[in-house]
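Hi V.,

You were right to ask for the full record rather than a summary. Here it is.
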Amino acid sequence: QVQLVESGGGSVQAGGSLRLSCAASGVYRSTYMGWFRQAPGKEREGVAALYTGGGAAYYADSVKGRFTISHDNPKNTLYLQMNRLTAEDSAMYYCAVRPYGRGWPIKPSDFPYWGQGTQVTVSS
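Predicted structure:
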């Protein structure tokens, strides 16, 4: 059974940083994992993704150069380091797993497994 548990969200002032974590269980060590976010009244959008078996990471244009996605294989934990946060980054952030397939951009419908989400609020 796949379980994804996010943590690390919170409130921060603009310009600050947060690191989100997603502890995964019941998933293969080599799989495609991504971070999505959804702000009130907006569609869920892909933020970043990577294949945990190695290779390039992918980012939305809005976060390139500010966010870094990474994965700790022994811990089977996905991270999202978020720097230089702005109010536009405020959203619920979700991690998700896609057992088959890769590629960018990522769509929510391609990911069958989801965490419960962690809230990020950036005040300007």
